[in-house]
UniProtKB/TrEMBL annotation:
InterPro entries, per the entry: NAD(P)H_nitroreductase, Nitroreductase, Nitroreductase-like, YdjA-like
Cofactor(s) the protein requires to work: FMN
Cross-referenced Gene3D superfamilies: NADH Oxidase
Protein name: NAD(P)H nitroreductase YfhC
KW Cell cycle (keyword) present: no
Species classification: Bacteria, Bacillati, Bacillota, Bacilli, Bacillales
Keyword Nucleotide-binding recorded: no
Encoding gene, per UniProt annotation: yfhC
């Protein structure tokens, strides 16, 4: 699998097999994810491993597709709005890396943005000024949806003088 193939063939997974994910595999995908670009090497990500009690309180409409592992990925606070945005950008790269590493291993991820809603922040015990970039269901896919077609990229390009 080339990097381009991994990028194009990764899908958001919404139905998982019950098979567990080994701790070693999970750590190796998170470790790969940490090679994401990040300004001043501030490594602004944090990982919350969500247990059954917290998961049921989150009450996700599809229970994260039955994923055996659920993580929340947080972005640490910064001194200025500019740097906070930078942190969220770096953590988004971290999440994409994580999804691609999981995909390479035959696993998949459901990225939900619900974690940053006020009531869910409280359930997750997220400190003020942290951002929850995603709540991720992680597991082996029971179903892989077809790719949704993308807009031709040429229509997104603007040439500046
Ligand atoms: C920041 C972010 C938040 C997302 N939040 C949700 C979500 O709350 N619920 C959901 O079903 N999908 C969510 N997704 C997944 C997108 O719906 C999905 O990436 C999109 O449909 C394209 O499908 P693909 O990932 O299979 O290419 C999110 C994706 C991103 C990047």
């Amino acid at each position: 699998m080339t990097i381009t193939e991994a990028i194009k063939n990764r899908r958001t997974i919404k139905a998982f097999k019950p098979d567990s994910i080994s701790e070693d595999d999970l750590l190796s995908w998170l470790e790969a994810a940490s090679y994401a670009p990040n300004h001043r090497l501030n490594e602004p990500w944090g990982i919350l491993v969500i247990g059954p009690e917290t998961r049921s309180k989150l009450n996700h409409k599809k229970d994260f597709g039955g994923a055996p592992v659920v993580l929340a990925i947080v972005s640490k606070p910064a001194g200025t709005p500019f740097e906070r945005d930078e942190n969220i950008m770096a953590v988004s790269c971290f999440v994409q890396n994580f999804m691609l590493a999981a995909h390479e291993a035959g696993a998949g991820v459901y990225w939900s943005s619900m974690g940053n809603l006020p009531q869910n922040r409280e359930i997750l015990g997220v400190e003020q000024d942290y951002d929850v970039v995603g709540v991720l269901g992680v597991g082996y896919p029971a179903e892989v949806p077809a790719a949704k077609p993308r807009t031709p990229i040429s229509s997104k390009i603007t040439h500046l003088a």
